[in-house]
Design goal:
7% helix, Putative Disease resistance protein, LRR_dom_sf, single chain, globular, 5-stranded parallel beta sheet, mainly beta, 11 strands
């Protein structure tokens, strides 16, 4: 298990960084973890995670990014059967992409993702349904 702060200890100081892709292809390293001290660049607008194998409970860390507009979760970026979204998260998110995730249930209310304009689901064959009233 490795944490984001181990990989990028001063990532939060990249105040002008707007786009970030993190590829964690080393399955033998175990899943990537966000720890309470992990901080993303404050002006991050686009984030892509690939193979990080995070549990869905870690999504709240991303949901609190104040300027996040595009989020792409690819190839086991998150693992587990269920994601429960929370109020006040992903308030500026416009584009959300899931690809090759094992999610089964996604629970969200109609006031979550208030600015979502595009949702792309690709090869998420276990997902039962898209939450009603999303965006």
């Amino acid at each position: 298990c490795s944490s984001l702060s181990q990989w990028f200890p001063k990532m939060h100081s990249l105040v002008h960084l707007e786009t970030l892709s993190v590829s964690h292809r080393g399955f033998s390293l175990g899943p990537l973890r966000f720890h309470s001290g992990d901080k993303f660049p404050p002006n991050l607008r686009k984030l892509t995670l690939l193979g990080s194998r995070l549990p869905w409970t870690e999504m709240s860390t991303l949901g609190r990014l104040p300027n996040l507009e595009v989020l792409k979760l690819l190839y086991a970026a998150f693992e587990g059967p269920r994601w429960d979204t929370s109020d006040g998260e992903f308030v500026k998110l416009k584009i959300l992409k899931f690809e090759l995730l094992d999610i089964v249930e996604w629970n969200a209310s109609s006031n979550h993702f208030p600015n979502l304009q595009r949702l792309k689901l690709d090869k998420c064959i276990s997902l039962k349904e898209i939450p009603y009233g999303l965006g």
